[in-house]
Amino acid sequence: MTGLRRIRQRSWAWPRSLLNPRSLAGQVFILQAVIVVLLVVAAVTALALQAKRDSKQAAERRSLSVAETFASSPAVARAMDSRDPTAVLQPQAEAVRKRTGLDYLVVFDLDGIRITHPDRKLIGKHVVGAFGAAMDAARDGRPFTEVIDDGPVGPAVDTTAPVNRPDGSLVGGVSAGITLERAENTVDRQMPVLLGAAGLGLVVAAGSTALVTRRLRRQTHGLGQAEMTRMYEHHDAVLHAVREGVVILGPEGRLQLVNDEARRLLDLPDAVEGRTVDEIGLPDRLVELMRSGRSATDEVHHAGNRLLAVNVRSTERAGGPRGSVTTLRDTTELAALTGRAELARERLKLLYESGVRIGTTLDVVRTAEELAEVAAPRFADIVTVDLLEAVTEGDEPSVHSGWRMRRTAAKGGPGEPGIYPVGELIDFVSTTPQVRALEGGRAALVADLTRAVEWSDQDRVRGAALLEAGVRSLVTVPLRARGVVLGMVNFWRSADSPPFEEEDLSFAEEVTARAAVCIDNARRYAREHAMAVTLQRSLLPRGLPEQDALDVAWRYLPAQAGVGGDWFDVIPLPGARVALVVGDVVGHGLHAAATMGRLRTAVHNFSSLDLPVDELLGHLDELVTRIDSEEDTGQARRGWEGVTGATCLYAIYDSVSGLCTMARAGHPGPALVGPDGTVSHPDVPPSPPLGLGGHPFETTELRLPEGTDLVLFTDGLVEDRGQDIDTGLAMLRTALAGAAGRSPDEMCRAAVEAMVPEHPSDDIALLIARTCLLDPSRVADWEVAQDPAEVGRLRAECGAKLREWGLSDIGFSTELILSELITNAIRYGAPPISLRLLRDRSLVCEVADGNSTAPHLRRATSMDEGGRGLFLVAHLAQRWGTRYVPGGKVIWTEQPLNGASAVPDETPADVLLDQFDDSGF
C-alpha cells in the first residue's frame, strides 16, 4: 500500500497542487496566469483599435480604386447611352464585383435610377443614401466617399465616381461599396501570434510551478499528518457504511478486520479481532473456504437463515502482506427485490406496448379491441370494453339518460354465459361497482367476488355463471378523456391467477387513460369525417345536367383521408354550348371541402354571366385572394388555415362550330382522344394557381371533330409520391389509347383501373366528354342590314323556318321576340348585325351586333314611348340574356319546343294587353 501510494503521489500530486487555490503552488500559478491574461487583453485591445482604423482605410482605398477604374472605362459611358444599358453593364459589374471582393457595384444614371445591382429586383429603382452630395461631387469631377454605419449589409464604405463621356459631359455614376469586415483585418493576422505567446507564457508558468511543487513535496516527505488522519477517517467510515460484509484474515487465519455489515450477516460478537476464524462459530464450509487461500467468486453459502454470496481474494496480489479478504453479500433480500423488479419491468413493458399497439387506427371499435388484446392475458384473464352508444357513433357522449353502454370488445375467457356478448346494449344498475367507478371517476376494486354481492346486481344469473366459471376478482376503470366519460373497462381474473390488489389499480388506470385518449381521438375523427363527407357529397354534383353537346362520364375518388377539395362540373350555357370545369383545392378535411364548395358556387355564378374563360378565371382568382386576406386575420388566430392553393381548368365547347375554348390556372392540361384513337395533350398555356393575383390567363381555341374525347382530370390521377407527373401522363396516354372507341363511361373505368392505386394519397376527379355537333339542318342564320325594313323580311323567313322545323305553335311568340330584338339592334346597335336560330332541346334565338352596350329590363311608365320591348321578351321567352363576344354582344332567348309560355296560362296576346293596361291605355 505504501509503494502504491507513493506512485500515485508522484503521478497526481503536482497537477492537484496547481489546481488547488489553497496550496502555495496553486496561488503562484494563479498569479502568473492573471498577469499573462491582463497582458493579452491589453494587447488585443490595442490591436483591435488599430485594426479598426486600418480596416476603414483599406475599405476606402479598395472602393475608391474600383469605382474610379470602372467609371473611367469608355465602354461604360457608351453602354449607358445604349438602348439597354443593363443588359451590357450588369454582367460586367457583377464580374468586377466578384473579382474585387466588393459587396456591391452599382451603376446609375443622372436621375439616380439603378442600371446594375447584385439584386436584380432593385434594378430600375432609385438609389438610397447621400445621392445629392455624390452627384454634386461628380459634377465637379471628383469621387465622393462616405461611411455608412447602418447599411443593409452592415457598416460599409461607399465611393461614388462620375462616369463621363469622351466630350467630358456627365452621364451617370458608379457606386462601389464594401463592408468593413471584408476589408483587411490586422487582428486576423496578428491574433494567432498573440495567442501563441500567451499560451507559451502559461506553459512556462505551469512548468515553473510544477518544479516548485515537486521540490516542496520532496522536502516534506509525502503527505502531512492532517491529510493522513483525514484519509484514514474517510476509509474507516466507508468500510463500515457499505452494505457488503468485509472480513480480512492475517497469515495465520486470524481476524484482523471485520466491518459492521459482516458482523450482522454472520452474527458475530463485537470483540472478534485477533481470534482465529475457527473459533467464532461459522459454518464449516465457509471456514474451509476462508482458510483455503484459493480465490472464489459469488459462491453461495448458508449462514443461519441467510443465503450469502461469498468472494475471496488474496491480499498478496496487490503487494500487501500475506492474508486474504472475504466479502459477503446477502442475496436473500435480493431475491425478493428481483421478483418485484421483474413484475415492475413487466408492467413497464406492457405500458410501452399499450402506447404502441393501442390507437393504430382511427376506428373506435378497433381501438377498443386493441385495448382488450393488450391487457389480456398478461394483466387480466378477461377484459371487456363498454362504450356509451353515442361514442360508437362518433357523437358527443352524454350520460343524462343513465349509464347505458354497448359492449364493444371482449378478450379472454372460455366464452361462458356470464359475459355479455359483443354488440349487446347494457343498462348498468346504480349499485354495481361499474357505476360507482363511473360516478367517482376512479377505478373500483372487488378483490374477492365470492365475498361481495353488489357486483352481480346487474344480472344474478350471469354473476352466478361467472363464479361457476372460476372468475374471482374484478377491477373496473372508467374511460375518461378530456374530462368526458366515454365508457368503462372491466378486468377479470380467475382462481388460477392471483387476485387484484390495490397496487394494480394505478396500472389499470394508466393503461385505460392511454386508451381513452385514443378512443376519443377516433371518435372525434369519426364525427369530423362524417361531417366532412356529408358536406363534400352535398357540394359535389349529384348528377349531370341534360344537354346534347357532349356525352359526359365522370369519376370522383377521395383520398385515403376520405375528404378533399377536388371538384368538377358540367354547366350548360346558352347557344348549344357547355362549360366543363375541373378544380382542386390543396389539402384535405372539412376546410378543404368547404372551400371547394365556395369556389364551385362562384364558378356557377360567373358562368351564369356567360363570361369568357379568361375573365371567369380572373374573377375566380380575385375571389380566392379576397378569401385568403380575410382568413389570414380571423381564422389563423383560431388555428384554421386559409386557402393555401387552388387550381382550375375551365373550358367552353360550342356544339354548333365544334370550337372549344379553354384556360387553366395552375392545373394540369387536358388530354384529347381523337376519333381515330390517337391521344394528345394540347398546348394550353400554363398560368399561376388561383390566389396569387395580378397574372393574366391565356386562352386556347381548339376545333374538335365530332367524336373527340376531351379528358379533364386533377393531378391526383397522374401524380403520386412514387412517380413524377411525366410518368403519370405517359401511363394515362397508354390507358386512354387502349380504351379508345369505347363509351366515355368505359373509358373512365379503364383509366381508373390503370392509374389509381389501392389507397390513393390524393383526391382524383376525372371527366371525359365526347363531342357532338349540332346538325346543320337545325341551324339557321341571316345577315341583317341596318334598315328597319329588314324586320318584316326576317319575320317572314323565320316563320317559314319554324314551320319547316314543325314549330308553328311558337311561331307567333318567336316573331314577336325577333321583331323586338332586331329592331333594338338596328336602332341602338352597330353593324355587323346577324340573326341565328338554333333548334336544340329548346329554340334559341340569337341577335348579334357590334355594340357592347347591353339592354336592361325595366317597367315603362304611362309617359314612356319605349321600354316595353324587353319586358315583352322576358314574358314570352323561358330565359334570355346577353353575352359579350369580341367586337360586340349577343342577345339570346330560349323557348320550349312544346309551345309552353314562360308564365303558365298566359298567351302573347295577354302579355300585350297587360303592357297596354300597365301603361294606362
The helix/strand class is alpha+beta
Beta-strand percentage? Answer: 15-25%
Backbone CA Rg: 48 Å
The strands making up the biggest β-sheet line up spatially as: 12-11-10-15-14-13
Low-confidence stretches: 1-14, 636-640, 915-921
User: Alpha-carbon distance between the termini?
Assistant: 137 Å
Helix content range: 40-55%
Largest sheet: 6 strands, antiparallel
- The counted number of beta strands is 30
Mean pLDDT: 80
Number of helices: 23
Structural shape: flat
Task: Give an account of the 3D structure.
This protein has 921 residues and is of the alpha+beta class. Helices cover 41% and strands 23% of the residues. A 6-stranded antiparallel sheet has the order 12-11-10-15-14-13, sandwiched between helices. The longest helix has 48 residues, at 24-71. The protein is flat and about 150 Å long. The N and C termini lie far apart (137 Å). The model is unreliable at 1-14, 636-640 and 915-921 (pLDDT under 50).
Give a brief rundown of this model.
This protein has 921 residues and is an alpha+beta fold.
Topology:
Layout: H1 2-19, H2 24-71, H3 74-80, H4 85-100, E1 104-109, H5 131-139, E2 144-148, E3 156-164, E4 170-179, H6 186-219, H7 225-241, E5 245-249, E6 255-258, H8 260-266, H9 284-292, E7 296-303, E8 306-314, E9 324-330, H10 332-357, H11 364-375, E10 382-388, H12 389-392, E11 404-412, E12 425-427, H13 433-440, E13 444-446, H14 460-468, E14 471-481, E15 484-494, H15 503-539, E16 550-557, E17 564-573, E18 577-588, H16 590-608, H17 613-633, E19 646-654, E20 659-665, E21 671-673, E22 679-680, E23 700-703, E24 709-713, H18 725-738, H19 744-755, E25 764-771, E26 779-784, H20 790-804, H21 811-828, E27 833-839, E28 842-849, H22 869-876, E29 879-885, E30 888-896, H23 908-919
Antiparallel strand pairs: 1-4, 2-3, 3-4, 5-6, 5-9, 7-8, 8-9, 10-11, 10-15, 11-12, 13-14, 14-15, 16-25, 17-18, 18-19, 19-20, 20-23, 21-22, 21-24, 24-25, 26-27, 27-28, 28-30, 29-30
